[in-house]
Every structure is written in structure tokens, then in C-alpha cells.
Amino acid sequence: MELVTLAQRPEIAEAMQQINIAAWPAFMKQAGASDRHWSTLLQVYPEYQLALCDNDHHVMAIGHLIPAIWDGTSDGLPNGWDDVLMTALNRRGRSFNAICMMGAVVSPNSRTSGLGLSLLRMMKTFAFEHSPVLIAPVRPVLKPRYPLTPIERYIRWTYRNGASLPFDPWLRVHVRLGATIIKGAPHSMVVTGSVAQWESWSGMRFPESGLYIVPDALHAISIDYLNDAGKYEEPHVWVHYPFSQD
């Protein structure tokens, strides 16, 4: 396997985009900061967009990094995914003191055992070549099964009673690679749309105002019929990787 950047191989942009499209729920690709500004991110920071390719140069997995600002304190962390993205785009050409992992996705056709772990290892090594500070707003993979549980409580769940490893398997992967869980980010990514849009994205009907559980959402969706609006605030988990030369 070979790790390449979008700057080195601009022709892989479409393959990277297709992997992202297949990975995320419809509502996350329609009306959030990622939908409005993702193409700009790829254009401004192609040297931080990574692809893991096989011997035939097929893209097997992708990883997105972005320069960030962090003062090293829990309170000083960005609000979440949207905040990191917009800060990086608004501060382009200016100095940063950290690298942030924005996502790591394995192609549906390449989901062999351990590929996600290999990708994270390579992303970690790559990031530390550019900065001694590495953070990530992690999307916990089992959280859609527990949408009513606040993220602050979810991150305290453990794999087994008395165990120190997190309950969530994707968080466990990060921790086993050396990351430390800092805190939950309950408003990390915000998606808004009309009631009709939310019905289209979710495949559900919303007969009245209220909170609804939508497939693949990490938290309930708030529907407001009076203002013809639906709002989703996706929670993530902030982790920090201490600097390592490994």
C-alpha cells in the first residue's frame, strides 16, 4: 500500500469524493458546512488530503487532515468539526499550531480487517511530520444506536465493566493508537433544512413539531413546523494524540 496526497495525485479527487459520498448519511451531504465548503477545502489544502492506494493505484481508503489552532486546554478546543473547517478556510495563508484529523474512511470495496487501523497509523505519522500537536473530533460509530444518550455520558461508557477502553469501537481504535479522550463536542456539526428537505433526506414523515430519531443520526432531529425548519446538531468526541516519533 502507498500513501499519497491529493496534491501529488490530483486525478484521485473523484475517487475520494465517491468514497465520501458512500460513507455518510444523506443529511450530512446536503446542507451543512461540509456540503458548502468541502470542495474549497480540497482546493486550498490538497497537501493534507490523503489516500491509501493498492499496487494498482486504486484508492482503498482516504484521510482528511487540516491545519488548526489549539492552546492545549480543554476549554480552548474548537467547538467541533464545523468550527475547525471554517477557521482553516478563513485563516488560509496564516500560521497554525496544530493538525486536526477531519475524517478517515475506508472504501466499501476495501473493508478488510485492519485497514482502518493502518490508515489511522499513517495519518498519525504524516500529521506529526507537520506539527507536534494532533487532535481529532471523532464520530463514534455506535452512537446512532443510542441517539438519546448525551455524548458526555456516552464517552464514559467502557467496553466491559471495570475496563479502561471505551465502549465505542472507533474510539477504542484511537485510544489503542495512543489518543486521549478529552471531552464531548455536542454541537460539532450542524445541519439545517426545511421540513420537506428533512423528509427527503431521512425517508421519514414528520407530522408535527418535535424531536425525531432519524436513521444514522447520532442525536435526535428537531422539527419546527411553525418556521418550516429542521435542525440537527451532531456530537463528536475530541481526542488528542501526544507527540510521538514512532
What does this structure look like?
By secondary structure, the protein is of the alpha+beta class. It folds into two domains: 2-187 and 236-241, Aminopeptidase; 192-231, no CATH class. Helix content is 27%, strand content 27%. α2 (33-44) crosses α3 (81-90). The two termini are 19 Å apart. The model has no long low-confidence stretch (mean pLDDT 91).
Q: Short summary of the structure?
A:
This protein is of the alpha+beta class and 246 residues long. The chain is 27% helix and 27% strand.
What's the topology here?
Elements: E1 2-5, H1 13-23, H2 33-44, E2 49-53, E3 59-68, H3 81-90, E4 98-106, H4 115-128, E5 134-138, H5 151-154, H6 169-176, E6 180-193, H7 195-202, E7 210-212, E8 221-224, E9 229-241
Parallel strand pairs: 4-5
Antiparallel strand pairs: 1-2, 2-3, 3-4, 5-9, 6-9, 7-8, 8-9
Structural class: alpha+beta
What's the name of the CATH homologous superfamily of the largest domain? Gcn5-related N-acetyltransferase (GNAT)
Continuous helix count = 7
Please name the CATH topology of the largest domain.
Aminopeptidase
Strand content is 25-35%
What is the radius of gyration computed over CA atoms, rounded to a whole number of angstroms?
18 Å
Mean pLDDT across every amino acid position: 91
Fraction of residues in H or I helices: 25-40%
| Low-confidence parts | none
- Strand elements, count: 9
Measure the end-to-end span: 19 Å
- CATH architecture heading of the largest domain: 3-Layer(aba) Sandwich
Order of helices and strands: EHHEEHEHEHHEHEEE
What can be said about the biggest beta sheet?
Answer: 9 strands, mixed
User: In CATH's first tier, which class of the largest domain applies?
Assistant: Alpha Beta
User: What shape does the CA trace take?
Assistant: globular
Number of domains: 2
